[in-house]
C-alpha cells in the first residue's frame, strides 16, 4: 500500500530517448500506464492473507505480525521522503524499472523466507519499491492523458484495484492451490515481468532525464507554510483516520477472522480485504461530481459507523456485519482520501506543492502503520476484542476532531 501526488510537477517533452519498437499512444498509453500501477500495487497487499500461515509456521506472536506489516511502511516512508521526486529527474520508465526490480527482489526473498529476519527483509524491500511506482506511475498517467481522461481518478482507481486484487488472488491460491507460500509469489514475479514489458512500450514523458547518478537530488522536501496550517490540519487528520482503517483491514482482517470469527479460510480472508478496496474503487468512480470538501466530510461521517460495525462484528461475532463494515469503510476511505488530497492540492502554492503534499503523505503513512502497531501491543496485553474496540474509539475521535477543525478553520473566512 502506497500513495502519490495527483498534482504532478512534470517536465514533459519528446526529446528523451525511447526504446526501439512500437510505442503506445493516446488513451491506450494512459490505460497501459494505469495497468502498470495496478500490477505493481498488487504486491503491496498480496501477503495479507498469508500472514496467518507465516505466523503458524514460524511461531511468532501477533505483535511480531504487526511489526512485519509496519516495517513495510517504514521502507515506504523512507523512499517517499528521500526519493519521492526521483522520476522527475531520471524519467518515468527508469523509476518504474527500479520499482519493479525492488519488488521482484522482495518477492524472491518471500519465496525463500524461512525465518523472521528474511520475512522482515522481504517486507522492507517491498516497501522501498512501491512509492517509486506510485510517484512515477501517477505522473506518467497524468502526462499521457493530456486532458483526454481523468488522470487522478484513473491512477487512484488503478492503485485501489491493485491493492484489492493482491489479497484476493493470494487468498484463493493459498486456500485451493498447493504451495501457498510459493505459488502466489511466483505469480507476482510473472506480473512484475508483464509490468516491465508494458513500461518498455510506453513513451518517456520527461524531456531531459538525468543520466549521471551524481546529479540526482536526494534532498527531502517536506513542510507546510504557516499561513495555510489551519486549512491543512483537517485534511491531514482525515488522512490519518481513513488510512488507519485501511491499515487495520490490510494487516489484521485475516487474523480477526481466524481468532474471533473462527473463519479459517484464506480465500475469505483475502475476499474481505478485496471487498474494502473494490468498494473504494467503485465509490471513487461514481462520486467525481462531489466537491473536495463535501467528499472529505462525508468520508469522515461514514467512517464512524464503519468503525462501529467493526466493533459489533467482534462482539456478535458476525461475518455479515464485518463485510458490511468493510464495504462502508471502503466508501469512507475513498471519499476521505480523494477529498482531503484535493483540498491539500488546492491550498498549496505552486512552488511549495511537492513538499506540502509530501507532508500530507506522511500523515497517511503514519495512519496506516502506527495504529496497527498499537493494536498488536494492546491485543497482547489485553484481548483482541479490547484492542479493536480501543482502535475504533480512538479513530472515531480523530474523525470527529477533523470535522471540528475543518469547521473551525473556515469560520474566520465566513466573517470576511
Would you give an account of this structure?
The protein is an all-alpha fold and about 425 residues long. The chain has two domains: about 25-210, Growth Hormone, Chain: A, CATH 1.20.1250.20; about 220-415, MFS general substrate transporter like domains (Growth Hormone, Chain: A, Up-down Bundle). The chain contains 14 helices and no strands. Helix 1 packs antiparallel against helix 6 (about 115-145) and helix 1 (about 25-45) crosses helix 7. The chain is globular. Residues about 5-15 have low confidence and may be disordered.
CATH superfamily of the largest domain: MFS general substrate transporter like domains
Number of strands: 0
Low-confidence stretches: 5-16
> What CATH architecture of the largest domain do you see?
Up-down Bundle
Radius of gyration: 21 Å
Class inferred from helices and paired strands: mainly alpha
Q: CATH fold name of the largest domain, please?
A: Growth Hormone, Chain: A
How much strand? under 5%
Cα shape: globular
Amino acid at each position: 500500500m502506497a500513495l502519490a501526488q495527483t498534482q504532478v510537477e512534470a517536465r514533459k517533452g519528446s526529446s528523451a530517448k525511447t526504446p526501439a519498437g512500437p510505442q503506445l499512444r493516446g488513451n491506450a498509453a494512459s490505460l497501459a500506464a494505469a495497468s502498470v500501477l495496478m500490477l505493481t500495487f498488487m504486491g503491496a497487499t498480496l501477503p495479507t492473507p498469508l500472514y496467518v500461515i507465516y505466523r503458524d509456521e514460524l511461531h511468532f506472536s501477533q505483535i511480531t505480525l504487526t511489526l512485519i506489516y509496519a516495517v513495510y511502511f517504514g521502507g515506504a516512508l523512507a523512499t517517499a521522503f528521500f526519493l519521492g521526486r526521483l522520476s522527475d529527474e531520471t524519467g518515468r520508465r527508469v523509476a518504474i524499472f527500479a520499482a519493479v526490480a525492488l519488488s521482484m527482489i522482495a518477492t524472491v526473498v518471500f519465496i525463500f523466507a524461512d525465518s523472521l529476519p528474511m520475512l522482515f527483509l522481504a517486507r522492507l524491500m517491498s516497501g522501498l519499491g512501491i512509492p517509486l511506482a506510485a510517484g512515477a506511475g501517477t505522473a506518467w498517467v497524468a502526462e499521457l492523458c493530456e486532458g483526454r481522461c481523468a488522470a487522478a481518478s484513473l491512477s487512484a482507481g488503478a492503485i485501489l484495484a491493485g491493492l484489492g486484487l493482491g489479497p484476493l488472488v493470494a487468498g484463493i491460491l493459498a486456500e485451493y492451490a498447493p504451495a501457498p507460500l510459493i505459488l502466489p509469489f511466483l505469480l507476482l514475479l510473472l506480473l512484475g515481468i508483464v509490468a516491465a514489458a508494458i513500461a518498455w512500450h510506453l513513451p518517456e514523458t520527461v524531456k531531459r532525464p538525468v543520466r549521471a547518478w551524481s546529479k540526482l537530488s536526494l534532498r527531502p522536501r517536506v513542510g507546510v507554510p504557516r499561513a495555510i496550517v489551519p486549512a491543512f490540519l483537517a485534511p491531514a487528520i482525515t488522512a490519518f483516520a481513513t488510512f488507519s482503517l485501511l491499515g487495520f483491514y490490510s494487516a489484521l482482517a485475516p487474523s480477526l477472522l481466524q481468532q474471533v470469527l473462527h473463519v479459517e479460510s484464506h480465500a475469505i480472508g483475502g475476499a474481505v480485504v478485496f471487498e474494502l478496496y473494490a468498494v473504494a474503487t467503485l465509490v471513487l468512480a461514481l462520486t467525481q461530481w462531489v466537491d473536495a470538501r463535501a467528499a472529505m466530510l462525508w468520508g469522515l461521517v461514514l467512517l464512524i459507523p464503519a468503525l462501529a460495525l467493526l466493533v459489533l462484528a467482534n462482539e456478535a461475532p458476525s461475518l455479515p456485519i464485518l463485510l458490511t463494515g468493510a464495504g462502508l469503510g471502503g466508501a469512507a476511505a475513498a471519499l476521505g482520501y480523494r477529498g482531503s488530497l484535493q483540498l491539500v492540492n488546492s491550498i498549496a502554492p505552486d512552488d511549495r506543492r511537492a513538499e506540502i503534499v509530501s507532508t500530507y503523505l506522511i500523515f497517511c503513512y503514519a495512519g496506516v502503520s502506527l495504529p496497527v502497531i498499537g493494536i498488536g501491543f494492546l491485543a497482547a496485553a489485553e484481548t483482541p476484542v479490547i484492542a479493536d474496540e480501543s482502535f475504533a474509539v480512538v479513530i472515531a475521535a480523530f474523525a470527529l476532531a477533523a470535522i471540528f477543525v475543518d469547521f473551525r478553520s473556515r469560520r474566520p473566512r465566513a466573517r470576511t
